[in-house]
Structure formats: C-alpha cells, structure tokens
Amino acid sequence: MHETGHVFHFFDAFQHQNLIWNHHSPMEFAEVASMFMEPPGMPYWNQNGDGVYDEGDYRRAVVHRLTSIVTFLPYMAVVDKFQHWFYAAAPEAVSADDMDTKWAQLRDHFLPDINYSGLEVEKTTGWQRKSHIPDTPSYYIGYGPTQMGALQAWRNALVDQEQAVKKLSSPLAANYTSTLSELFQLTNVRFAFNAATVGELMTLVRNEMAKHL
Ligand SMILES: [Zn+2]
C-alpha cells in the first residue's frame, strides 16, 4: 500500500505536470501519499473487504500496523540522530564497532522499553540494515512530519474516504511548482511535528486501535 501511494503520486504528477523536474516533490513531502495509503487500506484486508484475513487475523494485523506507526517515530529519531553523529561528529577513522556502540546507545535512549535479551547482535548492528543512512543523509527525519500529514489525511478519510482520496489527488501533483508549506496546505493538512500535533494524532491512532482490540 505504501509504494502504491508513491505510484499514485507519480501518476497524478505525470498527468498534471509537463516538465519532468516537476514530476518529483520536495523530499519532506515525498512520503505523504505513500504513508497516507497505509491506514485507509486496512478495511480491505479482511474477507469482507475482499482481503485475505479472517476476522481474528484482521484485527491482529490492524493493531500491529497501528502499533508500528507509534513505534516508528522514536525509531526515526534513532536513525536521524545516528546520521547527525555519523556525518558531523564521528571520528574520521570511525570503525564498525564505534557504529555498533552508537546505534545501541541511541536505541536504549529512544526505545528503552524493548527487551533485546538474546538479540544483542540484532540490536547493535541495525544501522547496517538501514540503506537510508549511506544513501540519503538527513532524509529520514522527513518521515516524521510526513507521517503527521498522512495521519491528518487519514482522519479526513475516516469521515469520508472517497472524498479524502479525491481531495488529495491533484494537489499532490503540484510538487515543485509549490513551496513545502503550500503543498501541505493544498492537501489540507498541517506541516507540524510539535507536541500538540503528535499528541493529537497519537490519540487518534490509540482510539482506532481500541476498536480492534
Ligand atoms: Zn516511501
């Protein structure tokens, strides 16, 4: 569903933008369509929605997905802070052991409640499995505000899914013809990653999750 959101974003752009450099959006906006597609797709996962899950598996899958939205935010902070350290503060002769130590420290700081007993190697070497770290320095933080934008769009979809999808479609295609804040305005969501916005949207996630427990 996530990657399908990127596809819809590109198709909208191909239809509305003649210039190839406007087929892309600013990086901070790139994940709005994709992350938006994740929760509104959930009703189609169960057999009533032509999906594959029976009622029990469907509920478990929804709770798992919504839990991932919450735990993703501190994980995003681990990746972002690791990148800041790696690119700006780490010694030039930084070793893999240094990186293991740093990654483990950041996991302990941002995700203190996870019990890694017996999985110490997985805990310390997570940076090796994160392609964004070498590929796209400083990109990962963008998933935070865009997740907030996607959750606001989901809130609109919970009221009227068809309208929410329609309203999101052509404004997405504005891409580089608009500024970042204009793009968020066009898609009818706030560009914010402050305590009030995160708190409000985590309450939404918790309330929706409670319906499936
Ligand atoms: Zn994506």
Describe this structure in words.
Helix content is 62%, strand content 0%. The chain is mainly α. It has a single domain, classed as Neurolysin, domain 3. The longest helix has 35 residues, at 55-89. The radius of gyration is 19 Å and the shape is globular. The mean pLDDT is 91. Bound molecules: zinc ion. Zinc ion (ZN) binds at residues 2, 6, 31, 34.
Identify the notable features of this structure and list them briefly.
mainly alpha; Neurolysin, domain 3; 213 residues; binds zinc ion
- What percentage of amino acids are in beta strands? under 5%
| CATH architecture assignment name | Orthogonal Bundle
Low-confidence stretches: none
CATH classification class: Mainly Alpha
Helix content: 55-70%
- Total strand segments: 0
Characterize the largest beta sheet: strand count, sense, and whether it forms a barrel: none
Q: Please trace the helix and strand order, writing H or E for each element.
A: HHHHHHHHHH
Give the overall silhouette: globular
Give the topology:
Elements: H1 2-16, H2 32-37, H3 55-89, H4 96-110, H5 120-124, H6 132-135, H7 143-159, H8 161-172, H9 180-186, H10 195-210
Helix pairs in contact: 3-4, 3-10, 7-8, 7-10
The protein binds zinc ion.
Zinc ion is lined by residues 2, 6, 31, 34.
